[in-house]
Amino acid sequence: MLIFLDTEFTDFIDIELISIGLVSQDGREFYAERNDFDVAKCNNFVRAGILPMLTQNDSSVAMTRAELKVNLLSWLSQFRHQGEIQVGFDYSTDWELFLDALDGEQPSWIGPALISDRIDQARRESYFQLPGAKRHHALHDARANRHAFFVV
User: What Gene3D superfamilies does the record tag this protein with (predicted)?
Assistant: First the structure.
């Protein structure tokens, strides 16, 4: 089973996780936003393009770092007995932030998969033409990667 991952974060230099989206091959989804990240670390792009898309008032997705770890592990546990689980990402920082969200405690039954060379960019772009699709939103970007992934 492959789970597609995307994250949004404060800045390339002073990195802190803002949001995380995961979509399994069969369509199950997880999305969370940190409500305790340091806004002062956000660069101008993030302030203009990422922060306005957040749903910080939605208690079903806004959570502290500690709550994120618990909820993420709970969601991932549904895949534990479904064979080899790989978390696919197109940018290595996504994997690093995924591990950071788990406080570095990578479950033994989950592994990383760099999938950037298996994403059809034209098909990925076509996802963003769909109604409601939001570029640079962690869940939508994970959905776009799932949509554009091709099996070799």
Answer: Ribonuclease H-like superfamily/Ribonuclease H
